[in-house]
Amino acid sequence: MEPYAIIQINGLVKRFPIGKGEFTALNRIDLSFGKGEFSGLVGPSGSGKTTLLNIIGSLDTPSEGTATVLEQNVGALTAKKAAVLRRQQMGFIFQTYNLLPVYTVFENVEFPLLLLNLRTAERYKAVMDALDWVGLTDKVKSRPAQLSGGECQRVAIARAMVKKPILVLADEPTANLDSDNSHHILQTMEKLNRELQTTFIFATHDEKVIRYLKRKIVLKDGRVSSDEWVTNQREG
Ligand SMILES: Nc1ncnc2c1ncn2[C@@H]1O[C@H](COP(=O)(O)OP(=O)(O)O)[C@@H](O)[C@H]1O
Ligand SMILES: [Mg+2]
Questions:
Q1: Ligand 2: distance of its center to the CA of 52 in Å?
Q2: Domain span at residue 93?
Q3: What is the CATH number of the domain that holds 133?
């Protein structure tokens, strides 16, 4: 069964100005992603993973070529339209959690919903559902400083998932977590992928994450060096 492509990348080049010259971070990338994938951009530090993830997330634009994400041409969007695309259809998970320290767990997860027009009761239910998915309903009133790193990342996952986005982008989500917490959050994301058909794309060089991926796209010096579907890597 071929899932329909929700991301289509053609001849993508990304150059950054450095000094008087330019650095080519992505060099003619062609890729497509289907709905419901659990895929990872893999490769050593500096290979272009974050750059590519940021373009898919409409946080950055191509220098050449096109990236069509959820039917929008990312390079042609105004900043405002890109913000709407992200707000309505995408969730983001970062290495550093990016939680708001003065807000409670509930408020952090509720935050993306405040820009949508929901009734209080609907918003409450969406937040509690999301906290239930990540196993944190007992921490609603805690603040990030009172949580472990693993719990913070689970709050960040709930925040990314609260709108039930089509696409979640996770950049090195386990970089600050120990092994147990890494497995816990990966199992949570795997479950959400399975039960809600949320598409996950990771950028990672963590072997623990790589073992959960269903598709492994290896980047090397800004090019795709291999792209394969994998199964049963998780034993051991
Ligand atoms: N804003 C920028 N300006 C200049 N160079 C950049 C910028 N962002 C990334 N790069 C360079 O592009 C390359 C790829 O970076 P990145 O996508 O962050 O790699 P990865 O996430 O795989 O570690 C690196 O050599 C990095 O230094
Ligand atoms: Mg990176």
A1: 9
A2: 35-50+78-229
A3: 3.40.50.300
